[in-house]
Specification:
The protein is an alpha/beta fold. The protein has one domain: 3-Layer(aba) Sandwich (Rossmann fold). Helix 1 links the parallel strand 1 and strand 2. Helix 2 runs parallel beside helix 3 and helix 3 runs parallel beside helix 4.
Amino acid sequence: MAKAGERILVTGATGIIGRHAVANLVAQGAEVHAVARDSLDQVSLQGAHIHRLDLLDRPATQALLAEIRPDILLHLAWITGHGRFWNAPENLDWLASSIYLIRGFVDAGGRRVVVAGTCAEYDPAAGHQSPLPETAPCHPQTLYGWAKHALHRVLASTR
C-alpha cells in the first residue's frame, strides 16, 4: 500500500501489470511516475506523470532518476516481443540495464524496490499448479527465464 505523496517510479507502465499498478497507486494518492518506451496510453495512465524512456539508454535513465528521486521503484519492464523474447540476446541487455537502473535508484536515495519475476524462472517439470507454490523449484529453460532469475539472485544477495 502506497502512502500519500510517496514518489513511485513504475517501469513497464503500459504493460499488463503496469497499467493496473499505476491506476491503483494513483488512487492511493501516490505521486506516480509512469515510464514506458512505446505507445504511452494517456487514458490508462491518467493521474500519473508520464515519461517516455528507453531503459536501455543509461544516461537518460540516470537523468530521470536524478530528476524524480523516487522513494519506491516498481520495475516491470522487460523485452516482451511476442514469440521471440524467450531466447532473444536482448534479455542480457535487460538484465544489465535492470541492475544499472536499480543501482541508480539506490544512489538517488530510493528506499524500496519491487521487481516482477516470471513463471519462466520455474521448473516446468513441477507441473502447472495455479497458483504456483512458493516452494516450487527454480530451473529456467530459456534465456528469458535465466535472465529474470539472475536478476532475482543478484538482488537477493544484496539485502
